[in-house]
Design goal:
This protein is an alpha/beta fold. It folds into four domains: 194 residues, Trafficking protein particle complex subunit 3 (Muramoyl-pentapeptide Carboxypeptidase, domain 2), CATH 3.30.1380; 165 residues, Rossmann fold (3-Layer(aba) Sandwich); 75 residues, Helicase, Ruva Protein, domain 3 (Orthogonal Bundle); 74 residues, Arc Repressor Mutant, subunit A (Orthogonal Bundle), CATH 1.10.10.60. It is built from 25 helices and 14 strands. It is elongated. The protein starts with a helix and ends with a helix. Bound molecules: zinc ion (ZN). Zinc ion binds next to loops.
Length: 565
């Protein structure tokens, strides 16, 4: 039976918690590093012998559990088939490539013995990395336990799998093992079972408890440090501000500092970087959070309308002014007025704005009274205000009044760490049940330059959500424009930050593809001799692509996919 079939049969998703499941149990995935650390800590804490027992028992229980799932799904007649599945499961779970050989049964069909080997054992790897030369016996203990548990379950009697020679001892590239019923090893069942139970762990437990208490104290300290950092970098309950980048953390730190003051703030940054979000943040954490936050786009209105929007007008001031209008400065009270695209404000209005900020009075259009105002001003612009001052398109006195506390918001492409959290945030907001993005899509999004910044990202996520329906978002669910503008293949080659040699490999593949697999041309472009290129290809097993046909390796295939998007 093939890997894929078994996977489909036994590994499912979509239970109510949306976890991947193996049979009816949850699958947990964590990297080798964590497991290696766990094994190391166990051995170092309780010693090799007890540590091995713990590992063996863990494997034994896992083996039985796996066998139960398999037996529930498949009704095989011969143990052979169960062993085949076991091999596949071991590969699937990243433990080792196991191969059973020479199974011997007696006349009654009872197990006598089986042999086999496993390659690329996870434990051998872990031991070599964690313990170096400290121990030279067989080390694949969890794996032995797993096979013991699994085969005990399928043969219906206690089977013990012993590692005969471990890869770590022989350096021949694999470990060999043998499995026999306990009687075949001359072991009493009761003795075996007792061996699985740990005794005299009291002392260790006491020590462990002390260490645990220590760890708890550390954790408490870390928690309060984290809370501290959160306080500094992210305001509680602020779901609008999504970021992971240090750049945004710094900006929020500045915003938080300036919020409780009444200072005028100037937010600078490209369109769509979220200037209004920061302005609202400042307002929300100011002393006048309960007063209105009023936003106006200074580029969207002609001068006379903008003037009456900002400062109000009296009835009859101009044709169509049938009623008095207060204007934002008066309506805001001691709240905040957000002047978006303030750089586009006509010069004559700039003079009136300066007066409102400087003297804290406004005069309504057509009015005679000076009305006192106290609103705080937050300006925003995507232009170089300073150079506009030089060109006399922006008043220098107003510029200095506005830029008391300037905050520069970097474009999204300069804080790529924020792309994924933002994309996930928008996705969840649009459809909380959506299954998410394919890794390839994420790589694409993280490699894209986002000229329209956060707003563009938000739009594209919305587009992709509509197009993908209930499916995970693939690259072809993204708008064509975005796929097309991913024209910088080097950036694309390096989006996932590969190692230098991996990047080299990818680049060689890319050049080959571009030259239609003409190796001499490719070598010339790469600045290497034909034989050097040939060596590279041989190392990566890419020597056999006929002219013009696509490469075969999965890497080049993947790359090929990317380039065709
Ligand atoms: Zn081994």
């Amino acid at each position: 039976m093939f890997f894929e079939e078994i996977r489909k049969d036994l590994v499912t998703t979509g239970n109510e918690n949306n976890f991947p499941m193996f049979g009816s149990g949850r699958i947990v995935t964590f990297g080798i590093t964590a497991l290696a650390g766990l094994i190391r800590d166990i051995i170092r804490t309780v010693g090799l012998e007890k540590g091995s027992t713990i590992c063996f028992r863990y494997g034994y229980e896992a083996g039985i559990a796996q066998a139960l799932v398999v037996m529930e799904h498949y009704n095989f007649k011969s143990p052979d088939e169960f062993l085949k599945i076991c091999e596949t499961l071991k590969t699937m779970s990243g433990i080792a490539h196991v191969e059973f050989e020479n199974m011997e049964l007696d006349e009654q069909g009872k197990l006598v013995r089986f042999n086999g080997i496993w390659r690329d054992s996870l434990e051998a790897y872990i031991w070599q990395s964690q313990f170096k030369k400290e121990y030279s016996g067989p080390v694949c203990i969890i794996l032995s336990g797993m096979l013991s548990g699994y085969t005990s379950a399928i043969f219906g009697q206690e089977v013990l799998v012993e590692e005969l020679v471990c890869e770590t001892q022989s350096h021949r590239g694999y470990c060999s093992f043998e499995g026999r019923p306990l009687s075949g090893w001359g072991i009493e069942v009761s003795h075996f079972q007792a061996g699985l139970i740990l005794e005299n762990l009291e002392d260790e437990m006491t020590r462990l408890r002390t260490e645990l208490r220590q760890a708890w104290d550390d954790m408490e300290r870390q928690k309060s440090e984290i809370a501290d950092l959160k306080q500094r970098f992210k305001m509680p309950g602020d779901p609008d501000i999504i970021y992971r980048s240090p750049a945004m953390a710094k900006i929020l730190h500045l915003a938080e500092k300036v919020a409780p003051t009444r200072s005028t703030v100037l937010l600078q940054g490209e369109s769509g970087t979220g200037k209004e979000v920061i302005a609202r943040f400042i307002h929300r954490y100011s002393s006048s959070a309960k007063d209105p936050f009023l936003a106006i786009n200074c580029a969207a209105l002609p001068a006379n309308l903008l003037e009456s929007e900002l400062f109000g007008h009296v009835k009859g001031a101009f044709t169509g002014a049938d009623l008095d209008k207060k204007g934002l400065f008066i309506e805001a009270g001691s709240g905040t007025i957000f002047l978006d695209e303030v750089g586009d404000m006509p010069l004559e209005i700039q003079a009136k704005l300066l007066r409102a900020i400087q003297e804290k009075v406004v005069r309504q259009v057509g009015g005679v009274k000076e009305i006192p105002v106290q609103a705080r001003i937050i300006g925003a612009t995507n232009r170089e205000l300073k150079s506009m001052v030089g060109e006399e398109r922006f008043r220098d006195d107003l510029f200095f009044r506005l830029s008391v506390f300037p905050i520069e918001i970097p474009p999204l492409r300069e804080r790529r760490e924020d792309i994924l959290p933002l994309a996930r945030h928008f996705l969840t907001r649009m459809n909380s049940d959506h299954p998410g993005f394919f890794p390839k899509t994420i790589r694409l999004m993280e490699g894209y330059d986002w000229p329209g910044n956060v707003r563009e990202l938000e739009n594209w996520v919305e587009y992709a959500v509509i197009l993908s329906g209930k499916e995970r978002i693939r690259p072809d669910h993204l708008p064509l424009d975005m796929n097309r503008s991913l024209a910088n293949p080097i950036k694309l080659l390096a989006t996932d930050l590969p190692t230098w040699s991996e990047l080299e490999k990818r680049y060689i593949s890319y050049v080959l593809e571009q030259t239609n697999y003409n190796k001499s041309r490719a070598a010339r472009i790469l600045g290497m001799g034909n034989s050097t290129l040939w060596r590279h290809l041989k190392e990566n097993d890419e020597t056999n692509h006929p002219q013009g046909s696509p490469p075969n390796s999965s890497f080049a295939h993947d790359l090929n996919d990317k380039m065709k998007l």
